[in-house]
């Protein structure tokens, strides 16, 4: 697949204290990729995304031209593939070996599918103002499908703290044990550092989430690595400057006036192959069929509807009535014919 047109506008929909959004912000800053931001409220509604016909409720969302990418795993994969490094974008070291790529991927799985982020979220101090806001609590009940329970949350904290310490111990005694600066022993931070650091950085930055002095006392290499990462991001941010903030109205105008990021799809590329794709075969789908698409782990009540453009083992793409293409990873998402109620597979 060809690289993206560097002139296409990149707009990141996010709110600054989203730990998932930080994965993307750090990547863009360390790579020196210019982008604009459309800041969002931490709870629904998000009319800026609704303007584009997007029901997906998770943050962040990234647009590159009229192609819009959901889920940080897919966003990072697309930025890496479609925006390969240039000589002026060399402050994020690439994974140079198969082993390095495997470590990078395993760290991603460990943080998200392996449950580290979930355990980190169970350490949020109950005194945080947002957690006391009834609107925020109701919003997160919609997001997770469960009602907040203060007693249950308190009971989970000791287990969560143990799991987070195990994650720190893993880094302390393996990848960082030889005194290297970065996870892959690269000259500068790599995507593997982002995949490993973000849940821990989130906790360290929240007063009261971890016992005072715990990280520095028990995991000094991890503490020093987090501080180095902070310094590297701060240096990169100073180089590239703050992103321009745009309103939802301006973002909508810019996106709908832009070209496609993945032009091969516009020219008819991409497959919807019933013989090779079991979900397509199961539902008897064809290119152009109206489908609905949603994440299966959280925010699953918010479904997007559009015409099926392409699907393979890694990605599903639909075009919405508003004229944008939504890209979602297959892992952690489901699609089926629009309006059809199908039991969980």
Set down the secondary structure blueprint:
Layout: E1 10-14, H1 19-31, E2 36-39, H2 47-50, E3 61-64, E4 67-70, H3 72-82, H4 98-111, H5 116-121, H6 129-132, H7 134-144, H8 150-173, H9 191-204, H10 214-218, H11 220-240, E5 244-245, H12 248-257, H13 263-266, H14 278-283, E6 290-295, E7 304-311, E8 315-319, E9 325-329, E10 333-337
Parallel strand pairs: 1-2, 2-5, 4-9
Antiparallel strand pairs: 1-3, 3-4, 6-7, 6-10, 7-8, 8-9
Domain GST N-terminal: 12-85
Pfam families: DUF7962, GST_N_3
Protein name: GST N-terminal domain-containing protein
Low-confidence stretches: none
Main sheet: strand order: 5-2-1-3-4-9-8-7-6-10
Mean pLDDT: 92
User: Percent helix among the residues?
Assistant: 40-55%
Structural class: alpha/beta
CATH fold topology of one domain: Glutathione S-transferase Yfyf (Class Pi), Chain A, domain 2
Strand-residue fraction? 5-15%
Please tell me the CATH architecture of one domain by its name. Answer: Up-down Bundle
- Radius of gyration from CA coordinates: 21 Å
Order of helices and strands: EHEHEEHHHHHHHHHEHHHEEEEE
Number of strands: 10
Overall form: globular
CATH hierarchy class name of one domain: Mainly Alpha
- How far apart, in Å, are the first and last alpha carbons? 32 Å
Count the helices. How many? 14
Protein name: GST N-terminal domain-containing protein
Organism: Podospora appendiculata
Pfam family, one: DUF7962
InterPro entries: DUF7962 (IPR058268), Glutathione-S-Trfase_C_sf (IPR036282), Glutathione_S-Trfase_N (IPR004045), Thioredoxin-like_sf (IPR036249)
């Amino acid at each position: 697949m060809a690289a993206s047109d560097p002139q296409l506008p990149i707009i990141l929909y996010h709110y600054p204290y989203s730990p998932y959004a930080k994965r993307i912000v750090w990547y863009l800053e360390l790579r020196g990729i210019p982008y604009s931001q459309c800041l969002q409220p931490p709870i629904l509604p998000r009319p800026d995304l609704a303007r584009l016909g997007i029901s997906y409720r998770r943050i962040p969302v990234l647009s590159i031209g009229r192609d819009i990418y959901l889920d940080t795993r897919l966003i990072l994969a697309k930025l890496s593939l479609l925006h390969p490094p240039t000589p002026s974008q060399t402050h994020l070291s690439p994974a140079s070996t198969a082993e390095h790529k495997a470590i990078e991927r395993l760290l991603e799985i460990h943080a998200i599918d392996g449950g580290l982020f979930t355990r980190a979220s169970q350490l949020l101090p109950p005194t945080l103002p947002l957690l006391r806001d009834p609107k925020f609590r109701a919003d997160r009940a919609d997001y997770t499908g469960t009602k907040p329970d203060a007693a249950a949350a308190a009971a989970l904290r000791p287990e969560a703290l143990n799991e987070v310490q195990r994650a720190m111990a893993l880094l302390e005694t393996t990848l960082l044990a030889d005194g290297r600066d970065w996870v892959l022993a690269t000259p500068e931070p790599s995507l593997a550092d982002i995949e490993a650091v973000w849940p821990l950085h989130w906790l360290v930055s929240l007063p009261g989430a971890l016992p005072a002095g715990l990280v520095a006392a028990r995991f000094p290499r991890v503490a020093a690595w987090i501080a180095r990462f902070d310094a590297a991001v701060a240096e990169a941010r100073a180089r590239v400057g703050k992103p321009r903030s745009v309103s939802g109205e301006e973002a909508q105008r810019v996106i709908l006036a832009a070209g496609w990021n993945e032009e091969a799809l516009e020219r008819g590329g991409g497959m919807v192959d019933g013989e090779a794709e079991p979900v397509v075969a199961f539902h008897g789908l064809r290119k152009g069929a109206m489908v609905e698409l949603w994440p299966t782990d959280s925010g699953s009540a918010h479904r997007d509807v559009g015409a099926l453009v392409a699907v393979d083992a890694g990605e599903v793409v639909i075009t919405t009535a508003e004229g944008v293409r939504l890209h979602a990873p297959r892992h952690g998402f489901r699609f089926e014919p629009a309006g059809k109620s199908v039991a969980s597979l």
